[in-house]
Amino acid sequence: MRMLKIIRAAQPSRLFFAVFITFALTSLAGEAASLKKIKARGYLNIATEDNYAPFEIMKGGKASGFTNDVVAELKKYADFKIRQDILPWSGLLASVRAGKYDCAITGSIISEERLRVFDFTMPTASAQHYYITRKGDDRIKGVKDLNGLTVGVQAGSVLLSRLPELDAMLKKTGGKLGKVVEYTSYPEVYEDLANGRLDYAINAIVSAQNLISKRGDTFALGEPVSGFGFHAYPVPKGNEDLLVYLNGFITHLYKSGKLAELQKKWFGRAFPDLPRQSIKSVKEFKKLTKAQ
Amino acid sequence: MTAGDYQMLLDGAWTTIWISLLAIGGGVPLGLVLSLIRVSRFPVLSQIVVLYVSLGRATPLLTLALFLFVTLPVFGVNIDKYTAGVLALTLNTASFNTEVWRSAYQSFPQSQIEAARATGMTRALYFRRIMLPQMWYASLPSLVNEMTLLVKASPAIAVIGVVDLTRVTNRIAAQTYEPLPPILVAGAMYMLFISVLVRLQRHLEKRAERYAT
Question: Which of A95, A150, A213, B165 could form a disulfide with A100 if both were Cys (CB 3.0 to 4.6 A apart)?
């Protein structure tokens, strides 16, 4: 879904872009290597991001964050080499889909749209949505106070596509969702929240907590505004072996206690109750994310 | 911002500079060659150049970069992100430069060519000695204009993973949640680089003036 971002970025000639990408994707789909081929050639091609704190960040020119620690563990676990490329989010899923990489090891969130072309491994973090307010905004004390207020989210994101869940929550208390403003990325959302153009913002729990840890003087974390959500690694559909292999790796991280350790290190808390299965269909996803 | 952040910005600026310079170094002569093929009215080849220029000018840089990076491997050409990035910029800028060179060629005074022929100069000789220096002089402002546009359009190739100056500002802002400081520093760096290009233009113009007048 966030793939839409690239299409938007190419405003001058969207048609050209759409034609090229459609061509590229249809001609390439299913080119990703099977596990057997990966083992035979001796390496796995993965794509990661670089500006999605606290999953993937650059510290003084070096890749850091939760995902990069997981990749370091994967290098120890795997009996083949890991070739890692860093891509911006806008080109990432398209490149994985096209078979340039075998899978994305990144903080991507599962969505119904993405499930059409990708299967997802076992989740490694919760991505439940929370609202964020300006610190000291007395109008907002709970979810019901969000009635009619202006919200900012990233365009084409899961945060946007799951807003109807918040609307349903507000309707129960006689309210409704206010104006929705869409942005290219979160730094702009936060700037507009700080300067008062927005009343609140919505982001997944891990990102929201990371923001509060850095700018707790300006922002405050609210309550959940969606059912469960998950960060998990996408593998192009049809590469069952690789999906099973990665699940085996994540299970290994669970058993050794490394996953909980890394979650605490980067997210400030562990997520012990995540589903221990891959998520491959919208039906499975809906069942797992149903609001309590 | 920390010292590490400034180091990242400098690294990003260097990437922007060397990638832009390679694309300029390839795109300006390529544009000249293509424009000559075009004005030669050589059958088929000339039409291919017309098509290339139309496509090159109509395709967004971002599309071209992603297309080269993602599609070429299918045809067995394994291209890395830097090659794909430089190639995308070169192909893009060359299509604009072709038009700049062509207009300089077509507006060249016929009387000079006739005078050169009258003295017995061959076509290659008068092109090299008489036409090219004056075409260069006439094209310089437009060529440098296109160079500055190229530098400012170069962040588009970040889509395939090239970490240019603009990309670095995103990386820093993602951690500090304060986008303004890195953007201001990067803005100043772009202005510096472009002002050097403009200086170079003035310098070359002065030199060219000596030959052309």
Answer: A95
